[in-house]
Structures are given as structure tokens and as C-alpha cells.
Amino acid sequence: MEKQRIFAKTWVLVLLGFMTGVFVGCSVRQIEFNRFPSKSALARNVRLSFAYDKRYTGSSPDTERVWDELLPVDFGFIKHSTLSPDPSAVAAFHQLHCLNGIRLHLDGKHSKRAASAHEDVSPAHMRHCIDYLRQSIMCAADSNLEPVNEELGGVTGWGSERTCRDFDALVGWTRKHRSA
């Protein structure tokens, strides 16, 4: 009789432990889905093949225009009642802002566009951007394999097929929640 009682208590404890684990797991998952738009509203992926796009590498007015078009109004700053009641920046747009700043700095456009705080190309800001992009790249840790280009003796990344987050969906979500 005592063995049956111990056996029953053990199973009740195992069952309660399992149910608690399921509850906690679902709660944590719900918090995770609510906190990051990339895991809820922006779960769509698209297949892309990387290719060189010279529009983003020159220093012409057209190059400036295409870079400006990458960033939504307000440079990707949003307010969201549950995710971010205080203004916050969507990381992808901060990353693009940094990359564009480095591009401007390399092109020697320090004075032309530095009037805007969003286009600060000072050496201190560029050092921030380099380290921020380093950490962002390491965080994403893209493990796709890129074939060696025999002529170059290295890789370009072009022709490499990827599954990417839907950037247009991110832009749309950001516009919907802009901090204006």
C-alpha cells in the first residue's frame, strides 16, 4: 500500500513538473514572439541570390538617392505600444545607416552631408559604426558557403543563394510604427 502511494505521488510530481515546463516554455516563447517583430509580424522569408549592384557603390546623385531610399522616414525609429513604448531604432536600419556613413566617409563626403545628425561621418562615429557592424555580423553569423572565384583567388559572395528576411516587410512594419 505504501509503495502504491509513493508511486502515485511520484507520477503526480512528474506530471506537475511536465505541465510546469510546458507552461513556462510557452510563456517564454510568447514573450519572445511579442518582443521582436522579426519573429512575429515579419516571419516571412524570401530567397535571394547575391549579385553586385553598382548603384550602391558609386558617388553620384543616383547613388545617394538609392541609399536614401533604403531607410524609411525617421530613419527606422519606431514606437510600439507593447514592444517599445519609448522611441527605438530597428537594428537593420541602424546597420544600414552605419554602412552608409562608412561609404560617405570613404568617398570623402564629410562636409556635404554631415549637417544631419543621422549622417554624422566623424571618425568617432565611424569607429562606433565599424564595431557595431562587426558585432551585428557576428551575431547573425551567416554560415552559408560561398564558392571560391578562381580568378580572384577568393570569394565575392555573388551568385550565393540565401534565404533572407523580407526586407520590404520590415520597411512596411517600420513605417506602420514610426515614431513621428
Automatic annotation (TrEMBL):
<keyword id="KW-0472">Membrane</keyword>
<keyword id="KW-0560">Oxidoreductase</keyword>
<comment type="similarity">
    <text>Belongs to the ustYa family.</text>
</comment>
<protein>
    <submittedName>
        <fullName>Uncharacterized protein</fullName>
    </submittedName>
</protein>
<dbReference type="Pfam" id="PF11807">
    <property type="entry name" value="UstYa"/>
</dbReference>
<dbReference type="GO" id="GO:0043386">
    <property type="term" value="P:mycotoxin biosynthetic process"/>
</dbReference>
<comment type="pathway">
    <text>Mycotoxin biosynthesis.</text>
</comment>
<feature type="transmembrane region" description="Helical">
    <location>
        <begin position="6"/>
        <end position="28"/>
    </location>
</feature>
<dbReference type="InterPro" id="IPR021765">
    <property type="entry name" value="UstYa-like"/>
</dbReference>
<keyword id="KW-1133">Transmembrane helix</keyword>
<keyword id="KW-0812">Transmembrane</keyword>
<dbReference type="GO" id="GO:0016491">
    <property type="term" value="F:oxidoreductase activity"/>
</dbReference>
